[in-house]
Amino acid sequence: MSRMAPIVSVKGNDTSQYRRLTPVECERLQGFPDGWTEGISDLQRYNCLGNSVTVNVIEAIAEKMKKDLEAMKNRSTKIYKV
Fold first, then answer.
1. How far apart are CA 21 and CA 28, in angstroms?
2. Whole-prediction pTM
């Protein structure tokens, strides 16, 4: 497992440079509020964020599951309704 900080390519005029993402940028990418991991070193912040689950993805999956379960419930109610 790599312990490097995440980097991004920044394209300029005919050149590419790289820069390190800040912990706040990583928090935003993972769906956490700014400063969520404050109080520990940047390396620990990167590790915590890299080991976390992306909040926005989990919310979207849960919402889809909720809609599907409600649809299944409505279908079964209609089928067995007397």
1. 11
2. 0.66
Helix (H) or strand (E) holding 82: none
Whether 42 and 62 share a structural domain = no
Q: What is the pLDDT of residues 15-71, one digit of tens each?
A: 778 899 999 999 999 999 999 999 999 999 999 999 988 888 999 999 999 999 998
**Statement to judge: residues 45 and 62 lie in one domain:** no
Any bridge partners for residue 9, and if so which? 18
**Do 14 and 44 share a domain, yes or no?**
yes
**What residue spans of the chain are helical by DSSP H?**
23-30, 42-50, 55-80
Domain that holds residue 81: 56-82
Whose tokens are 């909720």? That residue is 66
Give residue for tokens 């005919």.
14
Per the structure, the count of domains in the chain is 2
